[in-house]
């Protein structure tokens, strides 16, 4: 065989050998690729894989969601129903279930002849009307008349020492001359209002029960002047003879403890007025509003607000009178009336 023939044969053998070697290398690459795929499966939904991807790939792989068109805010309640909240409109009331509801003490001081003060003409009308109204309210009314200062204190202590466990409330009405923070006995000596209320604050059988005090007396010697009003607004002028329940002013204060209500004919430092036949302006209006409001189930605060409004609108001997109510009631008080 010639040289050309040998070379040709070697070429064919080398080509076949290279071809086989190439095929082996391709098979090894495919096998290695398949093994790597089996060892490291691709988790397309894994958050970690997404984080490792370039930002541009992350953006392209995000699914685009179609947003619902915006709706008027008036229709939001259809999609998000509101929870209904139970709103309680019921008032917490003091219990008034016993008969009688309680004692009503009326101290009526008329005769001041042994002093520089005049007798309190017209006060018996106040006493009679208060007795009638509180009896209609099923209170047990007891009247004490013409008491000296020491006697007033003793009577108060005696009532505070009674057993009120079968009672709902206590009422005390004091009709006398007065001064700032005090009322006077018929001997002209003052009794601080605190000494009238404090014994009942310490009464265990009246704890958490309403204790009401209505005081017809001046709280000073100053005359309360009115203010100018708009055209067409006029205050009714009371006709007749009025007197003052006043004395010199002192510095006593009027305290209020728990579950108390103290209604006074006038604010501190000023005079209050009493008609010599028809009774005092404050007590008479109090009786009127109690008889009018209690059958309608009006609470005591609403009733006394009306009293303040009517009394303050009057002109009495060219002066005004503004009653004052102080209270620490913890519930709504409605006084039943027959």
Largest sheet: 6 strands, mixed
Straight-line N-to-C gap? 150 Å
Please tally the helical runs, counting DSSP H or I stretches of 4 or more residues.
Answer: 9
Radius of gyration: 47 Å
In round numbers, the mean pLDDT is 78
Which of globular, elongated, flat, extended, rod-shaped describes the shape?
elongated
**In percent, how helical is the residue content?**
25-40%
What's the CATH topology label of one domain? Answer: Rossmann fold
Strand order of the largest sheet: 2-1-3-7-9-12
Annotated CATH architecture of one domain: 3-Layer(aba) Sandwich
Segments where pLDDT lies below 50 for 5+ residues?
226-235, 246-255
The H/E string reads HHHHEHEHEEEEHEEEEEHHE
Which range does the strand content fall in?
15-25%
Number of separate strands:
12
Topology, pairings included?
Elements lengths: L2 H37 L7 H6 L2 H7 L14 H4 L22 E7 L14 H14 L2 E7 L3 H12 L8 E7 L2 E2 L2 E3 L5 E3 H9 L9 E6 L25 E3 L15 E5 L8 E3 L3 E2 H13 L6 H13 L11 E4 L11
Parallel strand pairs: 1-2, 1-3, 3-7, 7-9
Antiparallel strand pairs: 4-5, 5-6, 8-10, 9-12, 10-11
